[in-house]
Specification:
6 helices; mainly alpha
């Protein structure tokens, strides 16, 4: 009698788990957001993206291209984005090589190109 109750108990648990998985996978599966803007990313993801731009800039130092890429990450001021990312990267302990890449991006963007870029984008 006792073993029968345990069997039904385990069977009920298995059915519950199976029903929950079936509901979650077949009836109401999670959907990825559509057209989620990059400006809504958390600061850690933005910092990683700025690092990617910095790596690209280190290989091909094109200030205008870097500014365009940074504008895609956040529509605000690109130099502010780099500064915020650098501060965050230092705060959480990014490797020194990565910090140098971001610092290089910040210090080596041509300011004349930046001014012209801002005027073309309508921000100046």
């Amino acid at each position: 009698m006792k073993s029968r109750r345990i069997l039904f108990f385990l069977l009920a648990i298995a059915l519950g788990i199976g029903a929950g998985l079936a509901f979650g996978w077949m009836i109401m599966p999670p959907k990825a957001p559509v057209n989620a803007p990059m400006k809504d990313l958390r600061v850690d993801y933005k910092t990683d993206l700025v690092l990617m731009v910095a790596e690209s800039f280190a290989n091909h130092p094109d200030s205008e291209q870097a500014l365009d890429q940074l504008k895609e990450i956040d529509p605000g001021d690109p130099l502010t984005l780099i500064g915020t990312s650098l501060s965050y990267a230092k705060e959480i302990g990014y490797p020194s090589a990565d910090l140098k890449l971001i610092e290089n991006l910040l210090t080596n963007i041509d300011l004349e190109v930046y001014k012209q870029w801002k005027l073309r984008k309508g921000d100046g």
